[in-house]
Design brief:
Blueprint (H helix, E strand, L loop, with lengths): L4 E5 L5 H10 L3 E2 L12 H4 L3 H5 L10 E5 L9 H8 L4 E6 L2 H14 L7 H8 L17 H9 L7 E5 H6 L1 H11 L19 E3 L2 H8 L20 E3 L7 H22 L27
Parallel strand pairs: 1-3, 1-4, 2-3, 4-5
Antiparallel strand pairs: 6-7
């Protein structure tokens, strides 16, 4: 058995919640591994179709079979790889305000002690409009139309469902019903988890970890293999602080042509994108740029 749909992205745009909800649906099969990454990682793709099919061995009784690997949207080889093996596949893409998406990915690396730069420094180092697997993609991953066009070279428009992440937050029932209809499964399925955040952001409270989180330049002094030793003790919820005004303005200018093209393509306003406030959609944030609450 092979999948008949893929969640191709975007990273930090609700794919974990989407995976869990679809996994609950009685007519949908999702493998135990959320991110199979078969079409994303060269070493996985090299294992061949038989290895990939093993993820779907128990899916025969479901109408829809899929997996969620958010790197698929931006990987330059993914559209061709997917089409070669699954030419009729249905594709689901969630898109999020690219500035908020970039902030979320950046702070995800910061809280895992894998980013020694401040946000402003990272912006100077990594601002680019095309993703490459060997580069950090904080900003290139949000250039959605570049990647959508690549997929449309291989797949018809009707095979691609694009939904704003913000709709998951404001009208989860409608958001999921559109997906169920796209997959030709029961649209009356409801879950008490529609409004659940399956990937809440937390950090450790211990002082050594907090020091490394607040002063990222010191992370370089700790070998990567040893940083997990600081993951201990109690946790607390975390909200990313707003970025500085200069960075915000630079990113708004950077993303504007891409966002305008996406709005025209979707025929949707995406009204909440580009707002000055970059607080996380769930919860508040510190008022000090790049200072940890």
């Amino acid at each position: 058995m092979l999948p008949n749909f893929l969640i191709i992205g975007s990273q930090k745009a609700g794919t974990t919640s989407l995976y869990h909800i679809l996994k609950e649906h009685p007519q949908i099969y999702m493998p135990e591994t959320k991110e199979v990454n078969f079409f994303f990682k060269d070493e996985e793709y090299a294992r061949g179709l038989e290895a990939y099919a093993k993820h779907f061995t128990d899916s025969a009784n479901q109408l829809a079979r899929g997996e969620a690997s958010p790197g698929y949207i931006c990987h330059p080889e993914a559209p061709a790889r997917i089409h070669a093996l699954l030419p009729d596949i249905k594709l689901i893409l969630t898109v999020r305000d690219p500035i908020k998406r970039a902030v979320s990915q950046y702070w995800d690396n910061r809280r895992h002690l894998n980013e020694p730069l401040t946000f402003a420094q990272a912006l100077d180092a990594y601002l680019d409009d095309d993703y490459a697997p060997d580069k950090i993609g904080y900003f290139s991953r949000g250039v959605y139309m570049r990647y959508i066009r690549r997929y449309l070279e291989y797949f018809p428009r009707e095979n691609l469902l694009i939904l704003p992440f913000e709709e998951m937050l404001t009208d989860a029932e409608s958001f999921y019903k559109k997906i169920f209809a796209f997959l030709d499964v029961d649209t009356d399925f409801e879950s008490e988890d529609f409004d659940e955040a399956f990937n809440p952001t937390e950090v450790w409270k211990n002082l050594p970890y907090q020091m490394l989180l607040r002063r990222p330049r010191y992370q370089k002094k700790i070998p990567a293999r040893l940083r997990r030793l600081f993951y201990w003790g109690r946790k607390m919820s975390f909200s990313a602080p707003p970025i500085d005004e200069a960075s915000r303005q630079k990113l708004e200018e950077f993303y504007k042509p891409w966002n305008d093209e996406l709005r025209e393509f979707l025929g949707a306003e995406l009204a909440s994108w580009g707002q000055a406030s970059l607080n996380r959609e769930r919860g508040g944030a510190s008022q000090n740029s790049d200072k940890v609450p």
